[in-house]
Amino acid sequence: MTEAPDFRGRLPFDSIQVPPVRLEGDSLYFQPQGPLHPATGQKERLVFDFANLADASNETFLEFARSWGVLGLCEHEKPLFHQAPPCLPRREGGEFVEPIASWRSRARHIRAILNVKASLKRDELGARADWRTIWPAKPPADRTDAGKSLGIVTSILLSQVNVHPALFYVDNRLTIQFVSGNLLDLLRAMGENKDISSWLSTSGNLLAEIVVGTALTLQEGTGWTVCSTPECRRLYQPKRHTPEGRLHFCPDCGKRAAWRLSKRRRAAKETKGQQPTD
């Protein structure tokens, strides 16, 4: 009999949990048992930093993974929750393995999407190489078809990652966040794999945030965006369009949050600069 989901433990609205990661050959090896630490990357830069991995060295992938965590790809090199019950990554001893080739192909896909979007903003149709990466047919012949095709490409990507919106009560407020996979399936998987349940709790959230962030970057007009305050991360509709890659804050956080976050990051850079080198 399947064990009932436990709603009292760690839930996937926590910060992405980063396991110990190492590089061997062309793969990333990680220990899901931990020790784990919260992701340390800048969320407003996540989509662009991931896209920049398209032609990066293997060492750069390792650096990204140590900051953001792993993508959560199963042994079929698909998102863990592409089926129910979810399947786990390829295991070697006490470690899981994710091939860098699978990361790179996804980074190139995201980069091509962003490149086409940038071209459309310049009233261009986009490079044929970018369309070949994301579109199985001939490249669109006009801007209207290109825009529609780009919407279809990104919508398919959202469905492939199995992105689900979920409403969580965080810091005394209800807020929408995105997880990869059905929440009940995730909770059941955590109950059935208690030794790695802490890692499983957010195992698909990095990929979900990359894909949702890509979709939010593509939208035109004010649309929706996510507050840049780490403690908030609330989905809201700004009054004006927010430039790509810039910090933006919901009405509850406002300019005061921008000042505090800027001060915090300056202090972190100064502290990092003072650390002794080997």
Radius of gyration: 19 Å
Overall tally of domains = 1
The stretches of 5 or more residues where confidence is low (pLDDT under 50) are none
Q: What is the β-strand count?
A: 10
Residue fraction in strands: 5-15%
CA distance, first residue to last residue: 54 Å
> Percent helix among the residues?
40-55%
Q: Sheet bearing the most strands, described?
A: 4 strands, antiparallel
Order of helices and strands: EEEEHHEEHHHEEHHHEEH
Helix-strand category: alpha+beta
Figure out the total of helices: 9
Strand order of the largest sheet: 2-3-6-5
Mean pLDDT: 84
The geometry reads as: globular
Give an overview of the whole structure.
With 278 residues, the protein is an alpha+beta fold. It has one domain. The protein is built from nine helices and ten strands. It has a four-stranded antiparallel sheet with strand order 2-3-6-5. Strand 9 and strand 10 form a beta hairpin. Helix 3 packs across helix 4, helix 3 packs antiparallel against helix 5 and helix 5 runs antiparallel to helix 8. The chain is globular, with a radius of gyration of 19 Å.
